[in-house]
Specification:
With 547 residues, the protein is an alpha/beta fold. Among the domains are: 128 residues, no CATH class; 224 residues, Vaccinia Virus protein VP39 (Rossmann fold, 3-Layer(aba) Sandwich). The protein has 19 helices and ten strands. The strands form two sheets. Strands 5-4-3-6-7-10-9-8 form an eight-stranded mixed sheet. A hairpin with a 2-residue loop joins strand 1 and strand 2. Helix 10 crosses helix 17 and helix 11 packs across helix 12. The longest helix has 20 residues. It is globular and about 75 Å long.
Length: 547
């Protein structure tokens, strides 16, 4: 989590979501003031008006329905109403974040969202679509020439598209929010902008930051789709990283996520267990952490080594982190050093901290202060997926770092990564992967915090939403969330000259004990020397070691 502050990006974020979205060419862009552009897909609550599928004056809203199956919600707040301070702005009469909303854990699994607000009058929809066709196929023959076909062929082409749209809309009364999201992404992938526009206008009425897991995830997925069409994904990603909260608040959100879900603890404990096992006979240890963040991982390691029979070893940690993480810490990387030094002193463990304030992609051997003959451990915890590889440009820092580390002859290298495939795949399969992966994450959060819990909204917004937007809306070097499956990491480590380091049985036992404190739907699996933490049998995080 690396928030930074940039007023220009924040303004761009607010400016985009405070303006209507207008169809212009191949993108939805913030519209300028246009007195003629006053037709809306939906007017006041529950009232359908004439459809202007080409130029709808429709804001990008994310809020839940009122629960009344006969009404369409159109007075929901814009996205920045809850991005501004983490609290959703509710209109009077809205019950989308009711305090009496109760749900059992089993109700969250693979939820599809609220269908009550979807358009249900398919016959009326067909009629409106035919009106659109008539308007598009008017007597002006030049408009037909833009389709590069004959008038009859053009009519058949548009009729086919409208039939497809009707087919998608017919699924809405069934409540298939997930399927409608998929249909919308598919339309965008196929450059079918009329269908995508229509579906997004419908989706805005049912997604919610305080609804079911699917509704909450849908709010951020929809945001990513809109940003992709508007080519504003990078600005929104940066704004979500830097816009409020304060450093203290952000740290509290990150800590809450750390506590309510075992993902980080799983990674840290499994990596620490591998390091303790590899260094059990050493009197001194040098650990290079390529993303030290708050340094929380090493507090448990210091305590474990302090209790080692025969006395603790001398510990030296080189902590790497770029300057943007200073905002979350409330200061420079030296804060981490002072914190860990205090913990080590309380345990009578000889300790030294070496800070490296740099991006991982800029790190070279000269920054690492490696001493000859010193037993070395290297930690890559949830960081390598941020490194660009050969698919992004000629500078393949992902493999360069592995080769550099191998040249240092470490006793052990630990790897913790999300078990997801979003690096090189095209947009639509990447959307599907992101949808399925984060739905499991949101479901696991749902059993830990109530849906109307303000801090849960902040956790999902500030710790997860920006990742989702970046994966969906950005391409090239701007897309920094590039996850790979463990099998691909295995190939990269092998090509760099590493061999697997089997995790000891004590590591597995430690993680099993950890999971006893969490909901029973978490799963732990060991395959080919790799530990996988999952939710409902969906692998989410993988941990392994190399030498």
């Amino acid at each position: 989590m690396r928030p930074s502050q940039n007023a220009e990006d924040i303004n761009e974020f607010n400016r985009f979501f405070n303006q209507p979205i207008e169809y212009q060419g191949s993108f939805f862009l913030p519209s300028v003031n246009n007195p003629n552009n006053n037709q809306s897909l939906y007017a006041d609550r529950g009232q359908q008006t004439q459809v202007s599928a080409l130029k709808p004056d429709q804001h990008c809203y994310v809020e839940s329905s009122t629960g009344n199956s006969s009404e369409l919600v159109s007075d929901s707040p814009p996205i920045d109403a809850f991005f501004a301070d983490g609290t959703p702005m509710m209109h009077q009469g809205s019950d989308s974040c009711r305090s009496d909303m109760h749900h059992s854990p089993d109700e969250t699994h693979h939820s599809s969202g609220n269908s009550s607000c979807f358009t249900s009058d398919v016959t009326d929809l067909k009629h409106k679509l035919r009106e659109i066709e008539t308007a598009m196929l008017g007597p002006d023959s030049e408009s037909l020439e833009s389709y590069n076909t004959t008038p009859v062929a053009a009519a058949n082409q548009i009729s086919s598209e409208s039939d497809k749209l009707v087919g998608v809309m017919e699924m809405m009364p069934r409540g298939d929010l997930k399927e409608v999201l998929i249909a919308c992404a598919k339309a965008i992938a196929e450059n079918n902008l009329i269908t995508a526009e229509w579906l997004m206008s419908e989706l805005r009425t049912v997604v919610s930051v305080c609804g079911s897991p699917m509704q909450r995830l849908g709010a951020y997925m929809l945001e990513g789709l809109v940003a992709r069409l508007a080519s504003s994904g990078s600005s929104i990603y940066k704004a979500l990283r830097c816009k409020e909260p304060t450093s203290v608040e952000l740290f509290s959100y990150m800590h809450l996520l750390y506590e309510i879900c075992p993902y980080f603890k799983f990674g840290y404990l499994s990596a620490n267990g591998a390091i303790v096992d590899a260094m059990k006979s050493e009197n001194s240890i040098h650990i290079i952490d390529f993303q030290v963040a708050q340094g929380s991982q090493w507090i448990t390691l210091i305590h474990a080594l302090a209790a080692r029979p025969g006395g603790p070893p001398r510990i030296r940690i080189t902590g790497i982190d770029d300057s943007t993480s200073a905002y979350a810490r409330g200061g420079g990387i030296e804060i981490v050093g002072r914190r860990l030094s205090s913990v080590a002193a309380s345990c009578n463990v000889p300790f030294e901290f070496h800070p490296v304030a740099a991006s991982c992609s800029d790190v070279e051997i000269k920054h690492l202060n490696v001493r000859p003959g010193e037993p070395l451990a290297v930690n890559f915890a949830l960081v390598l997926h941020h490194m660009p590889d050969e698919s992004v440009g000629t500078q393949n820092h992902r493999d360069r770092l592995l080769r550099m580390v191998k040249s240092l002859s470490p006793k052990i290298v630990t790897l913790v990564e999300q078990e997801s495939n979003t690096n090189t795949v095209q947009f639509f399969p990447r959307f599907l992967e992101t949808l399925n992966y984060y739905l499991s994450v949101f479901e696991s959060i749902d059993v830990a915090l109530p849906r109307d819990h303000k801090e849960r909204i902040n956790v999902e917004q500030h710790c997860l939403a920006r990742e989702i937007v970046n994966i969906l809306a950005c391409e090239g070097a701007e897309r920094v969330e590039r996850h790979e499956l463990l099998e691909r990491w295995r190939s990269r480590f092998s090509m760099a000259g590493f061999e697997p380091y089997p995790l000891s049985s004590s590591v597995n036992a430690t993680i099993k004990t950890l999971l006893e404190n969490y909901y029973q739907s978490y799963t732990l699996d060991e395959r080919n020397g790799v530990l996988y933490l999952g939710w409902m049998n969906r692998d989410l995080v993988a941990s392994c070691a190399w030498k």
